[in-house]
Amino acid sequence: MSSCPPHLAFIPADAQYLVMLAVMLAVALLTGQLTAGVREQAAEACRREERTRRLYRLAQDLAGSGSHWDAQRALDDFLQHTGYRAMLYLSNSAGEMTPLTAEPHLHAALLETVRRAEPLEADLADPALFLPLKASSRIGGVMVVTASGPASPPPTAERELFQVLASLIAITEERLHATEEVQASRDQITSERLRASILSALSHDLRTPLTALVAMTDSLVMADARPSASDQPTPMALAAIRDQARAIGHMVTNLLDMARLHSGRVRLRKEWQLFDDVIGASLRQLRASHPEQPVRTRLAEDLPLVEFDAVLMERVLCNLLENAVKYAGADQPIEVEAWPDGGWACLAVSDRGPGFPPQQLERCFDLFARGNPESSQPGVGLGLAICRAIVEAHGGDIRAENRAGGGARVILRLPLGAPPAFEEEEGEGGAA
Amino acid sequence: MSVEINVLVVEDEPHIRRVLQSVLATEGYRVFEAETGARGLIEASTRKPDLLIVDLGLPDMDGVEVVRSVRHWSEVPILILSARAEETEKIVALDEGADDYLTKPFGVGELLARVRALVRRRVRGGDGTPTVNFGDVQVDLVRRAVARGGEPVHLTNLEYRLLAVLVANPGKVLTHQHLMREVWGPGQAENSHYLRIYMSRLRQKLESIPTEPAHLITESGVGYRFVA
Questions:
Q1: CB distance A253–B192 less than 8 Å?
Q2: pLDDT per position as a tens digit, B108-129
């Protein structure tokens, strides 16, 4: 049997070749390694660039966020498809944790993170990373990062990224917190001022009629106790008591309305309607207390539908009518007009009374402003302030002017907007 | 001869109860009192009153609840007493079948006027008179004809339907929702501007001073009321 050399075999015939082979192999391996390394670096650079871009976008989103929920949402957007989930747990001003969602099992770890002011790794159901939201003045809360699925590596693998995220969020939360505090102190100042002026108004305008009321009823009680029935309570005394009580009731109503409007808790029940309804209803109320008062109404024929809260607008109109009667007297006619003017529906109440003192034209809608501070007219100067609050809540405006020939006029305007469609009925011609 | 008219007052405030009792008694009504909704429902079924006066803010149950329960078995007129803050509940109560409302504080004159109107309707019942007169207007419900000062007035179909619903319920507050349903049919609640426009047209045709209506009265934020 002759031996033939094996096919396709690689048998170095010489030791020299063996060395060369080893060198070539080494070189090949090295270049391969290097190329792979470069490619990996390029991919890594791409990833970093992408991440930086997304971090930049997150920073932008956070800068524009107006609430804690916005911040959480921006964070959710950022972490989408990364395999991680982060929840924000915020401290309130008293330093207590107010979780955006209540999860009692996290509580101990959250408090521990705030106390240590350092990142904390905890193994609850899943490995979780607790990062304090450290801002310059305080620790605003904790960000808790968990893997969103079993396939994701534990969050500690991306620790650096999450620390960057935590500091971005911390800055945002500090900004939101500061804004809230400024708003709160502004509200505080406004309500302090309101309370002070209400108190001073109450002490004068409510106590005077109340004193009279108590005195009058006292005298009635004493008269009742006396055996001689000669001095029966006169109908006049009783009517005076009733009028005083009504005036006080009216004032309390106005005060409550004002407080409600100021608290911002009034929800407008706006509906599309015509001015005639509210004018008719207000005049009816006026008639109840002033049956003989002459009133002239002039409503434009082409008055469109306007969107407003009927109950509140009735308050406005009643206040304006009452003012007109109070200052103009019962024999001069009051005028009520309504007309469209460009994009506005206008409504005016005018009288022929003494008018506004010129320096008061601008200020008469301020809270507790009154034409003449020493006037004997009752009322705490709430009426016009309520009118303005209501009209402005509707996106309208209100102003006062003195009429040529004497008298006051108050004009309010409501925006017209786009009224809903109205179709005439078909085949009309039913009842004759 | 005089028929005794029974009024049941369901109100938790003792002062207001006492005032109502004395005012109504002076007018010749026989007054029963209940200070809770539960008590009120029992009294309503045993006393068979001709009128119920129900406060919306009861301690044990909503006044609306009382109205709803009573309406299951009785058509007795119900007058609601409400505080100013109970605007929406008032509308719910009216939608549930209450006939009228008074907002506290109210005058005695106003109270008695409402009570009289409701009792009159109750005593006279659905007399089914074929014609209704108010002001200088005559409505012939059989011939569907309306005349003013003897002259025929032309009303469109919807105008007439609206008028007919109103005059069939004199003194009763009809909510926007109720009127929309009766005249335009169900599912038209958000089109209440139609109601406002037709109401305005009815007033133009039938009221002597349309801007100060004497018969087709607006109840702001609630609905309309026909007063003969």
A1: no
A2: 888 998 898 888 876 665 556 7
